[in-house]
Specification:
heterodimer, A: about 100 residues, mainly alpha, about 0% strand, B: about 260 residues, two-stranded antiparallel sheet, 4 strands, globular
Chain lengths: ~100, ~260
Amino acid sequence: MSNRDDPTQNASDRDDFERRLAAKLEKRRAEQAERAPTNWSQGVRYGSEFAGGVLAGAGLGYLADQVFGWTPWGLLIGVLVGFAAGTLNVVRAASNMNRDGSP
Amino acid sequence: MAEATNPIKQFEIHPIAPFNIGGVDLSFTNSSYFMVASALLVAGLLWLSMSKRALVPGRAQSVAEMTYEFVAGMIRSTTGDAGLKFFPFVFTLFTFILMGNLLGMMPYFPAPEFHGFTFTSHIIVTFAMALLVMGIVVGYGVFKNGLKFFSIFFPAGVPWPLYILLTPIELISFLSRPVTLGVRLFANMLAGHILLKVFASFIVMLGSAGALGVLGAVAPLIMVVALTALEFLVAFLQAYVFAVLTCIYLSDALHPGHH
């Protein structure tokens, strides 16, 4: 109680408090960073990235077939390029996750 | 019996107020009802909890502040401070999806016919939101960087003949983003809710099959309890993932060529 009235004591108390608070916050941030990406969300992310690439490629190829009458080459090439795009998506997602650990 | 245990009956859309313009069905449906409820609930709860503006926040106010800090931190860590001008957009998306997912976890809701509905389990809703995100990414990217925005289709440091192969791949990779963004949210909510309903109907079926059946129904009951907890986790996680990916795509519009 007495050291509350003493300004020098008070200042060092506050410094000490700031230091402890910063340490606590740092610890909590580290804990959260560790916990954030769950296996489930990672798995779903990879799966949907790949499927999305193939679906978009196939859709574009099918559209080209319908519009320009390239049947069946549009769909064939679209699926193949979509496959490559899906793989690129997965690689990009993986390197993203490795870099900052977020899903 | 078959009607009550149909696992996909929960996704049916009923018009509440039929409305037709020139042969186009624009009825106010139960899906629209839940979207309006979600938007009003988010706005109302935020307004209520922040109405005191206390320096030392109470419980409601600290939840509102935590949500704000959470989304602001997410934007800062993925796009840097330049992305903060998109804070209202990302925050609205996040809270709207989160509230929609959580409203979907209620088996009964004060709506017409009193059964719950998850609007995020319809691909048209999630795909429309994904298209909105991509529209903003392309629009803002072109507005801010001009033609330099399209450099994301021409990866640097490659001999030019390879562009014949690489540019279509990059283009489709870009076009697949709204598809993945929409499909992921939709598929998670749809699959989770079907699974819940299937296991819940096992309880009813086994329970009506005599004493041994009642004993056997304990197993699906435990499963449903565990799945409900998992679904709450998924509701948060998918809203978070949608918002994070929005931020990642926005950072492409802000700094193109930073892959």
